[in-house]
Amino acid sequence: MNYRHGYHAGNFADVVKHVALVAILLHFRKKDTPFAVIDSHAGRGLYDLSGEMAAKTGEAESGIGKLRDLAPPLPEALDTYLRLAGESGADRYPGSPLIAAKLLRPQDRLVAVEKHPEEAALLAQVLHPFRKASTENADGYARLLKLLPPPERRGLVLIDPPFEATDEFETLARAVQGAYRRFATGTYLIWYPIKSQSAADGFCGEVLAGGMAKALRVETSVAPDTGKMTRSGLLVLNPPYGFDSTMKDVMTLLAPRLGQGGPAQTKVEWLAGEGV
Fold first, then answer.
1. CA atoms of 275 and 65, how far apart (whole Å)
2. Which helix (H) or strand (E) holds 50?
3. How far is CA 65 from CA 114, 186, 267, 274, in A?
4. Rounded distance, CA 56 to CA 58, Å?
5. 77, 19 Cβ separation under 8 angstroms
6. How far apart are CA 220 and CA 142, in angstroms?
7. Could you give the C-alpha distances from 242 to 134, 216, 254, in angstroms and in order?
């Protein structure tokens, strides 16, 4: 699978991933102590929904496009996400690093890593206004171990690879295990596509074999398998207190809107820890 993000920006998977990102960072902000955000596969940071790539798939229209008329009251994470997404304008969609940068306080920090030089250059422009956000043009997997543990000893590691390689699940599982050994108290938000449920389950099992004490899985299916990207998941290690309830509330609201031909099928379940 080749998950070039320009084709998929603002789709259902982005919506779920970015609401989860916001929910985690809002929880971190409740304490005055600083936190770090490390985004290992950051992309360009801002996407043109009127451009050729987005127009070719039209996925944003069945993602963020379905949510613009949601009215309050809404869960805080969803309300904040929609506000941040709206700040970019109707024809643009913010990537994870821009959303994270907007939620930083003066004491917090973001390191956004992007491998492709052209994308990294665009990302640097997007993040330039944010003093505590930095961009690195490097391999995200290779940089993870060098960046962990962060000096703040508190933070989120976001791993959202493009799945361009056939062995991406194996590479990703090894990277997560290595990162966790260096920063076992951190929160990890890991995105993955679901083309095969057995492959997704195998990936989650491989990660958990590293001894993770708390792991939550959030999976979304918006339509039967048609060969296109209709299913995706999040594996969250050390989720903040109440994150599971937040995501269940959010997914209850999102499922009727994101589903194609019927409500989306959603699952929020503990694989290790509190709910097991």
1. 33
2. none
3. 27, 33, 22, 35
4. 6
5. yes
6. 29
7. 30, 12, 18
Closest CA to 154 of 108, 96, 112, 190: 108
pTM (2 d.p.): 0.95
Q: What is the reported pLDDT for 69?
A: 87
CB 188 within 8 A of CB 179: yes
Domain at 57, CATH number: 3.40.50.150
What total of structural domains would you count in the chain?
1
Residues 206-214: what's their mean pLDDT?
Answer: 95
Angle at 181 between CA 15 and CA 172, to 5 degrees: 45
pLDDT tens track for 142-166? 999 999 999 999 999 999 998 888 8
Q: Which two tokens stand for residue 132?
A: 């505590």
Q: What are the helix (H) ranges across the chain?
A: 5-8, 12-28, 52-57, 76-86, 96-102, 117-127, 140-147, 168-182, 197-208, 243-258
Q: Which tokens in the block code for residue 47?
A: 């996407």
Q: How many Å apart are CA 213 and CA 225, to the nearest integer?
A: 32
Q: Which residues are catalytic?
A: 160
Give the residue numbers spanning the domain of 257: 5-272
Question: Is 11's pLDDT higher than 90?
Answer: yes
Rounded CA-CA distance 113/116 in Å is 10
- At 82, is the secondary structure helix, strand, or coil? helix
Average pLDDT score over residue span 155-180? 95
User: For residue 158, what is the enclosing H or E element?
Assistant: strand 155-159
**More confident: 257 or 274:** 257
